[in-house]
Amino acid sequence: MNKSLQYTRPGFRAMRGVTLIELMIVVAIVGILAGVAYPAYQEYGRRAKRAEARAHLLDAAARMERHYSNTNQYTNSLATANIGTTTENGHYTISVTVGANNQSFTLTATPSGFTDAKCGNLTYTNTGTQGQSGSADDCWSR
To answer: What would the DSSP string read from start to end of 109-125?
Structure first.
């Protein structure tokens, strides 16, 4: 009896490994999955960074309102209103622009260390107007 065939069923050849075609099919499938998953992963990361910026802008607006209630004017200094110049993880840089007679403000969050072509800079004003410099409409809702 042939030792290499003693463990196979009658009519079947013994498997001896993986063919090159099978390996190439697996590589193609992994490539397709990576091509779909990686951009989705990157967008998820940008959305998380935007959420951090939105939270910081809302907190900064509350601090600006608190300063206004104490002094009857907004300040153009983030330090005076006790507002950090970057978000918690440093993904956005915060700036403030004060309007005429210090009676209005616009807070701006600018991406730092990455680009966000979809939303760009996020803005928030003393009237509660939310905006962005990019073309997307859902930057404040997602």
So the answer is: EEE-SS--TTT-SEEEE
Cα separation, 77 vs 18, in Å, equals 67
**Phi, then psi, of 49 in degrees rounded to 5:** -65, -40
- β-partners of residue 122 are 109, 132
Helix (H, G, I), strand (E, B) or coil at 25: helix
The total of other beta-carbon atoms located within 10 Å of residue 133's CB is 13
Residue showing tokens 């003393």: 126
CB 122 within 8 A of CB 136: no
Instruction: Decide if 110 contacts 132 (C-beta within 8 A).
Output: no
pTM of the model: 0.78
**Contact by Cβ (8 Å): 106, 96:** yes
Q: What is the pLDDT of residues 82-113, one digit of tens each?
A: 999 999 999 999 999 999 999 999 999 999 98
Asked whether the beta carbons of 64 and 81 are under 8 A apart, the reply is yes
